[in-house]
Amino acid sequence: MTTIGKNYGQISAVIPARNCEDRIAELIETVLDQGPVVREVIVVDRNSSDETVSVALSVGDPRVRILYLTNCKVEEAIRAAANEATGDWILVSKSSRRQRTAALAEGLERDQLVPRKQLAAR
Fold first, then answer.
1. What CA–CA distance (Å, rounded) separates 23 from 103?
2. Is the pLDDT of residue 98 over 80?
3. How far is CA 75 from the centre of its chain?
4. Complete edge-to-edge strand list for the sheet that includes strand 38-45
5. Which among 95, 111, 88, 100 has a CA at the least distance from the CA of 40?
6. 112 vs 41: CA distance, rounded Å
7. ∠ CA(93), CA(51), CA(40), 5° rounding?
8. Range name among 36-40, 54-58, 99-103 with the lowest pLDDT average
9. How far apart are CA 34 and CA 120, in angstroms?
10. Is residue 84's pLDDT more than 90?
11. Residue pLDDT, tens place only, 8-34
12. What's the Cα-to-Cα distance from 57 to each of 25, 29, 52, 64, 70, rounded to whole Å?
């Protein structure tokens, strides 16, 4: 496990998702592997027609929750999740990319987190 967020508060990870059942579990687990600094993972389901939601929930961690939205752009999904988030910082991890643990941790150490207040309620 990589320890991140020494200089941050709690992190809310946001994953906009649509039809990504083949990679969503790995992405969620990669984020959760960062440790207790990750307060929650919000998967924003954008009207998936596959098993994205059930696969995401099968991870079985209480920090994972689903936000259902239809007919929205990725940016709108991120903003909606930021409004629901409870962490101090938002990490956006797009489901179209696979992120390995080391790359995720490196990104966080490079200050690629956005303050929740900056994204919410625009």
1. 16
2. no
3. 13
4. 64-68, 38-45, 11-17, 89-92, 114-115
5. 88
6. 16
7. 35
8. 99-103
9. 24
10. yes
11. 678 999 999 999 999 999 999 988 988
12. 9, 11, 9, 7, 19
Tokens of 62: 């209480």
Amino acid making up residue 90: I
Query: What domains lie within the chain, and their CATH numbers?
Result: 11-117 (3.90.550.10)
pTM score of the predicted model: 0.82
The length of the chain in residues reads 122
Q: What residues form DSSP beta bridges with 64?
A: 41
Mode of pairing for the β-strands spanning 114-115 and 11-17: unpaired
Is the pLDDT reported for residue 44 higher than 50?
yes
DSSP annotation of 18: S
CA distance 66 to 41: 8
Number of Cβ within a 10 Å radius of residue 93: 21
